[in-house]
Every structure is written in structure tokens, then in C-alpha cells.
Amino acid sequence: AEPNWDTPRTRQLAVTACFNCHSNQTHVLWFERIAPVSWWIDHHVEDGRAALNFSEYDPNHHRSGQRIAHEVQQGSMPPGYYTWLGLHSSAKLSSADRAALVQGLEATFGPAVGVTERKFGG
Predict the structure, then answer these.
(1) Quick one: which of 115, 101, 112, 75 has its CA closest to 12?
(2) Which of 59, 48, 7, 3 is nearest to 24 (CA)?
């Protein structure tokens, strides 16, 4: 039960940048399946899904979606270590993609709570 995305573009950006940790559609690299890295990855994905799982979206708990728009806007999602060394470089967002994803998340879930200004340029 995914959210009712405002546009297919928003969904595609979320798939690219968020779904590996925030959905049931996780794809890991071969070395991420080997302990102890696999333990860390499993824990990280469990935490991500607990915070927001796009595959099991519950509209009664939509504030988490607003929170993730804020975290994307601030640059904390996707986390820097996830795209570090280019291992998951497809999840690294350009400024334009980050702005489009934030706008789409806000349109899908409502305005990001407590946000007064955008950190990225136009």
C-alpha cells in the first residue's frame, strides 16, 4: 500500500533515493550480504522501515512522510555514507532532483513540519 504519489516523477525519485531502506524493495550489493557488513545493513534497513516504509504506507501516520521531506531538504537523507565512494551513487541527488523530491513529498504528504527555508539553490 504505497502512498498516493502526487506524480510518477516523485515516486521515481523516492525509488531512486529512498526505497532501498524505506520500502520492502531492498537491493543490496554482493558484499553487503557478507557478515559483519550484512548485520549492519540489516539493522539499518530495519530502522529505515520502522521510521517510514513506503511499501506499507499508513495514511494515519503520515507525519513520518513530512519528516522525511524535511530530512531530504536538509540533506541528511539519503545519508552521505550511503552514497559514499559511489557504491550507491544512483541514490545521490542533484540539487534539482533534491528540490523536486522535497516538493513532491510535500505535495504527497503535506508541508514539511518546522521548515522555514530551503537549503538548496534554485
Answers:
(1) 101
(2) 48
pTM of the model: 0.82
Take residue 86 and report the three cell numbers written for it. Answer: 559511489
Cell of 42: 540489516
At 93 the three-state DSSP class reads: coil
Query: What is the C-alpha separation between 60 and 17, in angstroms, rounded?
Result: 24
Q: How does DSSP classify residue 6?
A: S
Rounded to whole angstroms, how far apart are CA atoms 1 and 74?
27
Give the list of residues 6+ apart from residue 45 with CB closer than 8 angstroms, or none. 20, 21, 26
Amino acid identity at 55: S
pLDDT averaged over 10-residue windows placed end to end, the chain, 122 residues: 94 95 90 90 90 86 74 89 76 93 91 50 41
Distance separating alpha carbons of residues 93 and 65, to the nearest angstrom:
18
